[in-house]
Structure formats: C-alpha cells, structure tokens
C-alpha cells in the first residue's frame, strides 16, 4: 500500500486537482476494471495531465488479497505551479489503499428510503461524468440528514432536474421505460450504470423529481454496493412523497448484480434469511 503522506503543496490536497476510483475486488479480481480505468483516462484528459504509467495499475487487484475488498485509487496532478495556475509539465502522484468490504443484502432485498436534498448541484460540463476529487457539494448534501433509516439523498441541479444520489446513480421505470438522468452538465457517470446501459435500453432524460414520483419502480446503484431498490421517497422536510412496491424491481437488480458477482433477486430471500 502506498501510504506516503502527500506534501502540503500537492494540488490534489490543496485544490481537489485530481481523480479517484473505488473498485470492488473479489479474490484479487477487479470488477468492471476496464470501465474504471477508462473513466480515469477520460478524467485525466479533461483535467489536462497524463496518468503516470497506467500499466502499473494492472497488478494492484491481485495484491488486494482474498475475499471482498474495495481498492481506492487516487491520482493528483502533483505539486508545482503558482496558486491556481498548474505547472507546465505535471508530475502526477498515485496513492491507493485497500479495505475489507461487506455489502448490505438487507437493502438489496427490502429496499431503502431516500430523501430529496436541498442542495442543488452546479453545472460544469467540463467536469460532468468524471470522478474528480472536488466533492464538496456531495459532502454538504450528505450533511443534511443524520437519520440512519434514510439510505441516500437525491440531488437535482439548479433547474430542479434530477442528477444522481450523493454517492450513487439513479434509475427509474416510467410507463414501461427505464430512464436515468442526463449527466452532460454535472454528476458522475458510474461504471455500473454504464455497463447496464450496454445490456438494457436505459434512456437518458432531463426530468424533475416529478418523473420519479410518476415511476412504478426506482433504484440507486453503484459498482461497490450494487443495486438498492427504492421503497420510499421523502422530501427534505421528511414528508412522504412516494411509496414503491418491490415486486416489480427484480429484473434490473439481477442484471446489475450479475456484473458484480452479487446474488440476483431470485437468490436474495435465502441470503437475507441467513
């Protein structure tokens, strides 16, 4: 593990000038690995620096050990430059860590409660889709609630259009059509969402939270936790806005979990009972 401290003049530390990925690793095999590396490459291109020897990353998953772990990769532009002005030639830094991981199967099976956040995401198309280090908006949104019964917060942009959850992507089914928010102005293009889009017809739309309330099923998802069906949506003030039945939410979860090696919906009853 690279545990060397970052110097105070590192631009990732000082300005959030860098990228990160969190990768699910099962017995030394990284899930959706190519998608994570491709998103890192897109992010580095957007920020205007080159990744330091991407080939050196290939051996990392095998070093994570047995069982289920999460590999966190961080790359910064490095040090240099004056103030906000970046150096003419960047010398990026890698850091990585590994932690044991246990998913939450009760959320797979029984669904979750989510709330609408008061915070509105700002637009910045040049950063949209990538997983950059400047995540203060997400931190402030997650600070809005302390209720352990609420699993996630749903974020909209300044125009009231749905974008994502604080740490997950969002999909819903309305009038028989799978929909997910457009991420061309802000938000993170999750690797599990992208992989599902290659298997299922998921339409990217611009829609307010009214679309979510019109949906007959909805999910939040990411490449570590898998898919959590939504059971209830509440307002920022705690008012109940929508309840969903979980009976019609099985197929998308099964398709997603097959990509991560997690149980499909047909296996969850036995898993949770244990």
TrEMBL record:
Q: What catalytic reaction does the record list?
A: 4-amino-4-deoxychorismate = 4-aminobenzoate + pyruvate + H(+)
A matching Pfam family: Aminotran_4
Query: Sorted alphabetically, which keywords does the UniProt record give?
Result: Folate biosynthesis, Lyase, Pyridoxal phosphate
Q: In which pathway does it act?
A: Cofactor biosynthesis; tetrahydrofolate biosynthesis; 4-aminobenzoate from chorismate: step 2/2
Entry cofactors: pyridoxal 5'-phosphate
* Record field: transmembrane: none
SUPFAM superfamilies from the xrefs?
D-aminoacid aminotransferase-like PLP-dependent enzymes
Q: Which GO terms describe its molecular function?
A: lyase activity
Q: What is its EC number?
A: 4.1.3.38
| Top EC class, one word | lyase
Answer yes or no on keyword Metal-binding.
no
- Per the record, the domain of life is Bacteria
Q: How does it assemble?
A: Homodimer.
Q: Which family does it belong to?
A: Belongs to the class-IV pyridoxal-phosphate-dependent aminotransferase family.
UniProt-listed PANTHER family: AMINO-ACID AMINOTRANSFERASE, AMINODEOXYCHORISMATE LYASE
| Protein name per UniProt | Aminodeoxychorismate lyase
């Amino acid at each position: 593990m690279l545990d060397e401290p970052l110097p105070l003049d590192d631009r990732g530390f000082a300005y959030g000038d860098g990228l990160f990925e969190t990768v699910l690793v099962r017995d030394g095999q990284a899930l959706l690995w190519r998608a994570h590396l491709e998103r890192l490459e897109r992010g580095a291109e957007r920020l205007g620096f080159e990744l330091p020897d991407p080939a050196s990353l290939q051996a990392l998953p095998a070093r994570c050990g047995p069982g289920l772990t999460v590999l966190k990769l961080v790359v910064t532009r490095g040090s240099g430059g004056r103030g906000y002005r970046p150096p003419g030639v960047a010398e990026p830094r890698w850091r990585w860590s590994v932690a044991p991981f246990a998913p939450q199967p009760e959320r797979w099976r029984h669904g979750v409660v989510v709330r609408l956040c008061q915070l509105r995401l700002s637009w910045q198309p040049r950063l949209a889709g990538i997983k950059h280090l400047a995540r203060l908006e997400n931190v402030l949104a997650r600070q809005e609630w302390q209720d352990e019964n609420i699993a996630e917060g749903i974020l909209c942009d300044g125009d009231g259009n749905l974008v994502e959850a604080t740490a997950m992507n969002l999909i819903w089914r309305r009038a028989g059509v799978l929909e997910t928010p457009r991420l061309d102005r802000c938000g993170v293009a999750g690797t599990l969402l992208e992989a599902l889009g290659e298997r299922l017809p998921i339409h990217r739309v611009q829609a307010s939270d009214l679309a979510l309330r019109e949906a007959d099923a909805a999910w939040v998802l990411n490449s570590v936790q898998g898919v959590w069906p939504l059971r209830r949506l509440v307002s920022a003030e705690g008012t109940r806005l929508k309840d969903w039945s979980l009976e019609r939410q099985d197929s998308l979860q099964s398709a997603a979990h097959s990509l991560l090696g997690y149980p499909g919906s047909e296996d969850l009853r036995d898993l949770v009972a244990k």
